[in-house]
Design goal:
Strand order of the largest sheet: 3-6-9-14-17-19-20
CATH topology: UDP N-Acetylglucosamine Acyltransferase, domain 1
Strand content: 25-35%
Number of domains: 1
Number of strands: 20
Order of helices and strands: HEHHEEEEEEEEEEHEEEEEEEEEH
Oligomer: single chain
Helix content: 10-25%
Structural class: alpha/beta
Distance between the termini: 48 Å
CATH superfamily: Hexapeptide repeat proteins
Radius of gyration: 16 Å
């Protein structure tokens, strides 16, 4: 199995593999072009899916891009980082505040394995109609349920159910939203 296939499967893989390094280099070049005033349409080509109405403000950085799937009407504010060694799936009508970081990349706890250069990833899913406040960090393997709001500065380390307000470090549910509140 190639290192790329291991990566996409969430298994331990060598991130310094030449094929993966070349793909990261291409994504870095595309992001740099966009961040320096290049056309957004060129950046959209690297994504797995770029839904209609997608807006991304510079600066924007990602590992590969092709593992990121945006729904329709997604807004990504300034200084966003998406480390997409595994899929990042973002639903329709999601608002992502400034300086949000979404990480699928993770490292082994075992020191010998970690210093060997092996790493792994876990998919991140963000449901429909979610609002993520500025400065939030979303960790590998997290799912955020539809209609939820994540407070600014949160560190999301575990799944967040749908229709809640959650915040903090670690992020935790503060309040449940009823359907009428979620649609305001």
């Amino acid at each position: 199995m190639t290192e790329k296939r291991k990566m996409l499967a969430g298994e331990l893989y060598n991130a310094f593999d030449s094929e993966l390094a070349a793909e990261r280099e291409r994504a870095m070049e595309m992001c740099a072009g966009f961040n320096n005033g290049g056309p957004f349409d060129e950046l959209k080509q690297i994504f797995g899916n770029a839904g209609s109405g997608l807006v991304i403000n510079p600066t924007y950085k990602c590992d590969y891009g092709r593992n990121i799937h945006f729904g329709d009407n997604v807004y990504v504010n300034y200084d966003c980082i998406m480390l997409d060694v595994c899929e990042i799936i973002i639903g329709h009508n999601v608002k992502i505040g400034p300086r949000v970081s979404i990480f699928t990349a993770a490292h082994p706890l075992d020191v010998k394995t970690r210093i060997s250069g092996l790493e792994f990833g876990k998919k991140v899913m963000i449901g429909l109609n979610v609002w993520i406040g500025g400065g939030t960090v979303i960790c590998p393997g997290v799912t955020i349920g539809g209609g939820s709001v994540i407070g600014a500065g949160s560190v999301v380390t575990r799944n967040i159910p749908r229709q809640v307000v959650a915040a903090g470090n670690p992020c935790r549910v503060i309040k449940r939203l009823d359907e009428s509140e979620a649609e305001k």
